[in-house]
Amino acid sequence: MDAIIKMLEKHQPLFEKIGKNPFLQAIKDGFLGCMPIVLTSSIFLLIATLPGVVGITLPQEIIDWCNKLYNFTMGVMGIMCAGTTAKNFTASMNRRMPDGKVLNDSSTMIAAQCSMLLLAVTQLSVTVDGSELSVMDCTSMGTRGLYSAFIAAFITVGVYMFCVKRDLTIQLPKEVPGAIAQNFRDIIPFGGAVIICALIDAAVRALSGVPFSEILIKLLSPLFAAAETYPGLIIIQFFTAFFWFIGIHGPSIVQPGIDPIRLANQAENLQVLLAGGHPAHSLCFNLSLVGEFGGTGATFIVPLLLILFMKSKQLKAVGKASIVPVAFAVNEPLLFGAPMVLNPYMFIPFTVTGCVNVCLAKFFIDVVGMNGFSFVVPWATPGPIGIFISTNFQLISLVFILLLLVIDAVIYLPFLKAYDKMLCDQEAERAGEVAVEAAVAEAPAAAIAETSTEPVAAPEAAAPSAAGKSVDGLKVLVLCAGAGTSALLANAIKEGAAKTGENIASSAGAYGQHTAIMDQYDVIVLAPQVRTYYDDIKVDTDRLGIKLLSPRGQEYIALTRDPEGAVKWLRENVSK
Fold this sequence. Notes:
Oligomer: single chain
Radius of gyration: 28 Å
Number of strands: 6
Structural class: mainly alpha
Largest sheet: 4 strands, parallel
Helix content: 55-70%
């Protein structure tokens, strides 16, 4: 196992490079920006469909109104993702632009949305009541068009970079207001982007007779089919956990490539469920409730195991501190507190448990008759509750949840016990060392007290240290991957400021969504899971005169549990 850990550490720079890939990062951040669409539309679907489960019939007008809200939110998911991906990719590329050359993120966002429509939507002529109407086929404006959205975003930003670097823009006199001049500068790159996408779509339609978005689905369909097999699900889940194990946020690397099919499958499951059929897709958006049951590594049961069966003080303390966050899929206190990241004892259960879970889910869906996941619930929904809701409140899902808990406990317990024994030995050895140190320290003090008659001079007042510097009025932004772990430290800082009487404003956010607000803060703190982006954000914080801090795993978790210590830590580090 030590050889495996050494090999992983040797290749960690490669994994970090993959995690910092600007294309993958833009897709992840763009998708995160659209999460309110997914969650809001799901609420209205639940309102329209769940009352029927318990025998309540809503008026048809209410059902139609809820379905309309769904269609005009989730139904335009592709267009929105094109814009948010382009905006985040623009922010990343602006760091690479020459001095004085800046891409307009508002313009690239709009251009990407127009380009996505050209790649994904078909214009048709239909006859209604004897009149010929021009209509658009909206099938690919939603989740079906996500790949077209990403490609449109990258093409758009690439065209803007090409034009702006070479000054291929319309230049107006200096007397023209900046906002108006910017609009004219964007005409050439905007036109270039949409024309290129229109030509690509025209070529694809001429060769195949289908829009560009349909070509992508056909080309990738073998991959989609393989992904929903047992080996495919195992590969997806293994690498999600594997990257986290080496300290890189695994979902941000693995999931962008499968998000379109996960969402499309979930939408298809919902349609089948509403039609009275059996939703049979297993690779869905909320399969993460199973594969990441309690967070990556399927750690839902682990805090309880630590509390009930472990003997070491460290693991019991970690279990008590992490049981509530892990229940809501925020398992960083466990990952860095135990720790589980780069812990040789935890490699096998951390990477294997989620794989077993998704295979069990597929078996229950294919063989036992459990519904595939049909409703989207927030990622922080406790796993058992989310699974029960997503499967349309099937009783068989309760049996499935119970089996998950038992199997996950069986997988983790032997490895936790082995790790616990090692920690207990270390704690016992350390306790003996402390006792010896205390005895040695007391002996000279007693001897001095017996023999010395000279008065002991009072120590001089210490000079004010960095720990004593005021942080009153400071604005702090804590960033993590999904605004869950960052909230733990942000709340601790607020609590510590209240206790010390200092005016500190602290907020939590997700990395990638910070670019528009970071200039409003004095300090930015990176949670351990996004430390790999330190160099990228340092460019922006240095430019804006913002202090950037990045505590490591154990230190970060300790700060979340010690509010006054968190404020003290700010004092010590802000002035450095």
